[in-house]
Amino acid sequence: MERKNYPVGSENYHLVEEIGRGSSSTVFRAICKPLHETVAIKILYLDQNDLGSIAYEAQTMMLVDHPNLQKAHCSFISDQYLWIVMPFMAAGCCLRIMKSDFPNGYEEAVIATILRGVLRGLEYMHHHGDIHRDVKAGNILVDSNGEIKLSDFGVSASLFDAGDRKCSRNDFVGTPCWMAPEVIMEQNYGYKADIWSFGITALELAHGHAPFSEFLPSEVLYRTLRAASPGLDHKTDKKFSNSFRKMIAMCLVKDPSGCPSAQRLLKHSFFKNARSGDYIVRKILRGLPTVGDRATEIVLKQEDMVVKKRKISQDEYKQGIAWNLEVEDLKTWWASQQLLDGEASTSRKDPVVVQQRGRFKVTPEIEESTMPETSRQ
Ligand SMILES: Nc1ncnc2c1ncn2[C@@H]1O[C@H](COP(=O)(O)OP(=O)(O)OP(=O)(O)O)[C@@H](O)[C@H]1O
Fold first, then answer.
1. In this predicted model, what pLDDT tens digit does every residue of 263-291 receive, in sequence order?
2. ipTM more than 0.85?
3. Where does this protein hold ATP (predicted)?
């Protein structure tokens, strides 16, 4: 198939509306003027400290070539911003669809269809030596035809460094509820960390929220290490099959050597329930407000919340925005918890220093070639 040439330079794109906001970026629906095509553009503030990971994200998105991974058409720098131009996924992410229309989670066949797409994407990444490291519903995009794509390679990492294949990494990154025990412990970890996050994502899609999402970040990490692995409950989750329960249990094994690879997991009987993109369209996309309308509603709600209480919002945290955590503070906190009573309590003050990465602030009306004002929070 002939490859289109997407132009570089902000003057070639008309930003139409905001459709998403992450911890480090704002995403817009836009028109590529020379090609008369709708695209999505992720705009990131170029923080000198984050240059390496930002460049890695753009590079990874340009190189991936798999139907279940979000690809970039092109990327370029404009002023102090990196623009990543990518295909527009008209239904947005699974998290937002769920929050607006399925607050208690999706039905099993929908979950199987979404997860099969994600797992195929992960299989490809792992095969090419990449770990995603931030698998969650907020990073699973859906197109108007029900196609599923895993996105956001902002914290992904290569196991090939300087040409050598490393079997593991030991950086502390990800989003607390979805983080594998070995990542929290800063032990060497590999592909299996994605399988843990995949299992947590399965529970998130089944219940409408990730396990432990009601707790503060440090407590989530503490419970991930100390409590029994989360799973589907025999009594309260009766609507789900045994096959689903077992598939999740296979992913949420604390010793990564006991976890299956993406390739092996794809053969699990649970994925026999997966259907076509048409099924996703019929079951979850019909009658859904547009991605832009949903984004506006969320922005308005968040701004309202910020006015009400100027502190880090637990709600934003529940949405699964990636956090940078001070590991030493965490360790001290865990030690104190064990000295107290071994059981973490939500009422205690969370000592974790949370720093959100640079955020691109938007103005409600975006005019052609007008960059919104920036804000560092
Ligand atoms: N190609 C796209 N088409 C439609 N919507 C998109 C697209 N890419 C991203 N979005 C929307 O924008 C949101 C934020 O994007 P993304 O997760 O890439 O940002 P981020 O800053 O890396 O987020 P975080 O670090 O908090 O996970 C997504 O959750 C999704 O709703």
1. 999 999 999 999 999 999 999 998 887 77
2. yes
3. 42
Mean pLDDT of the chain: 78
- pTM for this prediction: 0.79
Buried b / exposed e over 109-146, threshold 16 CB at 10 Å, is ebbbbbbbbbbbbbbbbbeeebbbbbbbbbbbbbbeeb
Please indicate whether residue 65 is annotated as part of the active site: no
Distance CA 362, CA 147 (A): 29
**Domain-embedded: residue 351:** no
* CA 318/CA 298 separation, integer angstroms: 14
pLDDT, one tens digit per residue, over 320-346 is 544 444 455 555 555 544 433 333 333
Q: What is the pLDDT of residue 309?
A: 45
The answer on 135 and 105 residing in a single domain is yes
User: For residue 211, what are the domain limits?
Assistant: 92-160+170-290
- One domain, residues 80 and 188: no
Mutate to test the pocket of ligand 1, among 21, 71, 93 (most ligand atoms within 8 A of CB): 93
Burial readout 233-245 (b: 16 or more C-beta within 10 A, e: otherwise): eeeebeebeebbb
Q: How far is the CA of 113 from the centre of ligand 1 (A)?
A: 20
Same domain, 65 and 214: no
Pair 198, 112 in one domain: yes
Ligand 1 centre to CA of 27 (Å) is 6
Domain count, the chain: 2
The verdict on 117 and 66 lying in the same domain is no
Q: Ligand 1 atom closest to Cα of 295? A: 31
Tell which residue, 144, 145, 125, 278, has the closest CA to residue 197.
Answer: 125
Active-site residue (options: 50, 130, 134, 143): 134
Q: Is residue 345 part of a domain?
A: no
76 and 100 both lie in a single domain: no
User: Among residues 237, 257, 290, which one ends one of the domains?
Assistant: 290
> What is the arithmetic mean of pLDDT over 4-16?
94
The yes-or-no verdict on residue 377 having pLDDT over 50 is no
Residue among 13, 25, 32, 179 whose CB has most ligand 1 atoms within 8 A, to mutate: 25
Q: Are residues 46 and 109 in the same domain?
A: no
Give me ligand 1 centre to Cα 280, in Å.
Answer: 20
DSSP single-letter state for residue 3? P
Q: What's the rounded Cα separation, in Å, for the pair 199 and 268?
A: 13
Residues with CB under 6 A from ligand 1: 19-20, 22-25, 27, 40, 42, 70, 86, 88-89, 92-93, 96, 134, 138-139, 141, 151-152, 154, 291, 321-322
Tell me, what CATH number does 48's domain have?
3.30.200.20
pLDDT, one tens digit per residue, over 229-261 is: 999 998 899 999 999 999 999 999 999 999 999
